[in-house]
User: What shape does this take?
Amino acid sequence: MSRFLTEKYALLTPYTPGEQPKDMKYIKLNTNESPFPPSDKAIAAAAEAAKTLELYSDPECRDLVSKAVEVFGVERDEILFTNGSDEILNFAFMAFCDATHPALFPDITYGFYPVFAELGGIPYKTARLRDDFTIDLDDYKGHKGAIFIANPNAPTGIALSLAEIEQIILANPESVVIIDEAYVDFGAESALSLIHKYDNLLVTQTFSKSRSMAGARLGFGAGCKELIRDLNTIKYSTNPYNVNRMTMAAGIGVLCDEDYTKQNCQKIIENREYTKAKLKKLGFTMTDSVSNFIFAKSDKISGEQLYLTLKERGILIRHFSSARLCEYNRITVGSREQMDALLDEIKRILEETV
Ligand code: PMP
Assistant: This one.
């Protein structure tokens, strides 16, 4: 810390992204990226856009919004694109929470929520997930502030149904309910259709997972036009050019290639179910993940030991050290070859352990 850092940030604990080591070539199953390359249409559009990088990007993202209106069934003034969905989530904390409007989210969820809250000096409450990691809807009633629910949740992969999401929206008319759908395309129901029905719903999505564009940084929020206007106030007060030209073009490209996205999601779903079945045979227990990751623990080896041994052998998965999670690991669902390599290595490790 320099002697210049202001007091308000001195105690901030930043978010810890999944490790990206460069010491050897790993099979990377730790940050929920897609194993598939971006759409050819996205790559070609980004390359073309690179030729005009001397110009600022369109702060209104007009061409991208036009395409999104077709694909996501929203109106132009109901959507706002951002630099990854992390940015729209941060904007939501800034816009809808303050000292008298605390944030509320599960105790086990996306690790960035408490960081956004602390960055903004925003108080927050957490509601304990049940022992099986499911949400108790009774914990989300009559809140006044903002509620953040990742659906499916991370790192468990468990999803609420659309009817349950609607119950939360209805039970909290004085709160904006933010449904973070980073992983929705792998088997959960999206709440996007509800934005026309409720003025307190904001749905966020990302192009990082199902659309293979984690490195481009593109996400969005969708909600009624008043909520989007509020979020635009924050955007235009921080970084109007938050989506760069190449990313915007790639975003349009991938939205012109929905079949590719759907095929890739289908492959991930198949690989997830394949891997879950094999892990079960190896004695693992796991949550009912409908995401692009599996959250699993073994009765033969500790979560940490499995993570460390796999890492030594060139396979990265995500380990969390907190008390309720430390026996588990979060394993990104990759290609079938990556999953077979993982399963072979786990089998070997378990044989060596007994
Ligand atoms: N929400 C959840 C639940 C996530 O796991 C992630 C990815 N780390 C994000 C949002 C943010 O993703 P991105 O900024 O890449 O859109």
Q: What stands out?
A: The CA atoms of residues 66 and 76 lie 7 Å apart. The chain has a mean pLDDT of 97. The chain has two domains: 7-36+259-353, 40-257. The first helix runs from residue 7 to 10.
